[in-house]
């Protein structure tokens, strides 16, 4: 069963200009619009970020809305990219619906990939938090930091 057609809140490699945007989103979505996810913080990963639920945090990103005829295929493709399998405790992320604040201040419900519980626990204990919640700005905030290559998408796991 395909879940409801909600927009997606993207905060890392899927953002416009990011290494996965063209491959996964170009031609499948309308224009991106800036958004903010409250109740989460951002951690730097090996070439991609993780959003982790935390009441006082804010993550900056973009809202993208799938074209109706592309929604089902896009949902499957993004779940595979994010290594999310519903109900599988080995998933790297969980796809959850959350309120996201648009640039004009209005709120919309959107799909967000948050770090799965085991991953979130590891990040909280020894991860590198991105203080301003904006993955794009992380390297500007770290003088001399090298940009790492994004991870390649993986085949989905089978339960």
Key structural traits:
16% helix, 159 residues, 33% strand, disordered C terminus, single chain, 3 helices, alpha+beta
Q: What is the distance, rounded to the nearest whole angstrom, between the alpha carbons of the first and last residues? A: 17 Å
Order of helix and strand elements from N to C terminus? EHEEHEEHE
Task: Catalogue the unreliable spans.
Answer: 142-159
Radius of gyration computed on alpha carbons: 15 Å
In total, how many beta strands? 6
Report the total helices. 3
> What value does the average pLDDT take?
88
Strand content: 25-35%
The residue fraction in helices comes out at 10-25%
Overall shape: globular
Largest sheet: 6 strands, antiparallel
Structural class: alpha+beta
The gist of it:
With 159 residues, the protein is of the alpha+beta class. It is 16% helix and 33% strand.
């Amino acid at each position: 069963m395909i879940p409801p057609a909600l927009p997606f809140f993207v905060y890392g490699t899927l953002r416009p200009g990011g290494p996965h945007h063209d491959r996964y989103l170009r031609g499948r979505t309308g224009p991106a619009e800036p958004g903010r996810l409250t109740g989460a913080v951002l951690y730097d990963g090996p070439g991609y970020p993780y959003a982790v639920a935390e009441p006082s945090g804010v993550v900056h990103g973009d809202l993208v809305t799938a074209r109706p005829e592309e929604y089902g295929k896009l949902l499957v493709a993004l779940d595979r990219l994010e290594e999310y399998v519903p109900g599988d405790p080995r998933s790297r992320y969980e796809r959850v619906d959350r309120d996201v604040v648009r640039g004009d201040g209005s709120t919309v419900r959107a799909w967000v990939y948050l770090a799965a519980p085991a991953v979130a626990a590891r990040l909280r204990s020894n991860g590198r938090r991105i203080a301003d919640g904006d993955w794009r700005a992380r390297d500007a905030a770290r003088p001399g930091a090298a940009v790492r290559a994004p991870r390649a998408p993986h085949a989905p796991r089978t339960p």
